[in-house]
Description:
The chain is of the alpha/beta class. 33% of the residues lie in helices and 9% in strands.
Amino acid sequence: PDNANQYAKELKQFNVGGDCPLFDGLYEFCQSYTAASIDGARKLMSGSADIAVNWSGGLHHAKRSEASGFCYVNDIVLSILELLKFYPRVLYIDIDVHHGDGVEEAFYVTDRVMTLSFHKFGDMFFPGTGDVWDVGAGVGEYYAVNFPLKDGIDDESYEEIFNPVVSKVMEIFQPSAVVLQCGADSLAHDRLGCFNLTTKGHAKCVSFVRSFNVPTLVLGGGGYNIRSVARCWVNETSVLLDTKLDSRIPYNDYWEYFAPDYLLHIDKTTMENSNSKQYLEKLRIKIMENLRALNAAPSVQMQEMPPTDFDSESDDDDADPDERPMQAAADARQASNEMYDDEQDQGFEKTAGASAT
Length: 357
């Protein structure tokens, strides 16, 4: 920040300022949360984890060359690109109160990534995108799915739309991996959000996605009531671990933050639900019609998997310095029943023969 005046042109060009303020340690902050998301993706790819969690990630508004909405680097896009090195199809699900515009824009014209966002739309609400008619373009047409909602949606109404839409997307798209953005600003009592979900209702979405047993990267996102955010993500961590927590928060250094009840879960407010059953059903039918336009899960052209420069599971200290690992062995890894028919399709037979001579 001390030398910001020297870079006024660059700051303006990349939209740093306003709702994306410059602060000391910004670069290290972006490095940390982005690297954590990418590393989570690599753990899924290596098979060392079925579910990877990074609550510091999920900054879904950032664009390729523009910071936006408190988001500087879009770790979601980078982690999906990493997953696409190994998995043929990735599904992105966003339950933040704001539309995941940065992620949708990045994959708007591809059929290998489907983006599904449930968000507030209308009344000049940020970022102003994500209408039900925004469905993708080119080969990516109908691979962008948006469910625009009004103020005050509660647990019951949210579950009635979330479960059938996600089920249909899973059936049609058949994702090899899922990235789930769990923005906590869709909870009741949020300072910027206008939904009326409880921590239990929010966690039901996480539990439902988990039930499909697809490798899943779980990320954080928005949330402007620190007490609600802490409750939400602790509870959802327990859901992902299939572990039940006591409803009363144990004593800790931050115990007074959760006064006066010191309970894990929050209740909804008296806010009116502006989403009528007719409105939600009309949108649900429209989305189902769009999904039916997709005949089957898209296939992927056969190709070698790009090398991964960093393996978070490896230990270089234990490696034999006189032994060179075969790159073909690493490249031959593939998602089960996907992408390749046999090793000869990738050219590994030729590589092995060349090595033998």
